[in-house]
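One example given next:
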Amino acid sequence: MDEAALSPDQRSASTQSRLLAERLRQSLLDGAFAAGSRLNEVHLARTLMVSRTPLRAALQTLAGEGLLHHTPNRGFTVPARSLTAMIDAYEMRALGEGLAARFAAERGLSEEMRLRMEVALTAGDKALADDTEESARRALYAEANETFHGIIHEAAQSQLVVDVLRICQRVPHTSARNIVAFELADVRQRHAGHRKIYEAIICRERREAEQIMRQHVLAVKLSVARWFSQLQTEASQTPPQPRKSAAR
């Protein structure tokens, strides 16, 4: 349904649901909820001080992205994270994204696509600027990052490549929408890579576009591997405590 057709109350609930999804998405990506724990809607609504309707919509969104598992009569649970699965997905994504960049350079960008890509690059610049509010930076950059990669997928004009990349995103931590290991200096380097990819594409340098894109995705893979290893190390150094379900 077009959001413009919604009533003010419906638009408010929709906006709240999106904000909740973003807040919970980052918590899940950062490992704030233990793998296997159950997220009880009543408890979570009280903790976040929100009503259950937008919260349920947010949880359903995250389940659709693979960040949560939903089981009838049991609710939402946090799936286990696998470094091996992440690495495999990033390896495949590097190939797919590289091929998408190559095709985009071969086939060229329309003027409309070029303008949209420049807008996404500028949005990324603003998200990573020193004066951007810290609490908003990650979500703003995630949106710009997803838009940038999405335009390249569109310009590639290959449904097969898009399908391969969609399969990679079944591992949520490898999605262009989900920014993991958000170290500002590191992410600024990644964004600088976007500029180089864009320049290679508009100059029709197909091999360079493919190579830079692959290196870009593999660099993100390395950052995620370091982040995951650190997370596991910290978890192993934490004294064991009685396990509590998120339902209580």
Q: What stands out?
A: Confidence is low (pLDDT under 50) at residues 1-7, 242-248. Residues 27 and 210 are 33 Å apart (CA to CA). The longest helix spans residues 206-237. The first strand starts at residue 38 and ends at 39.
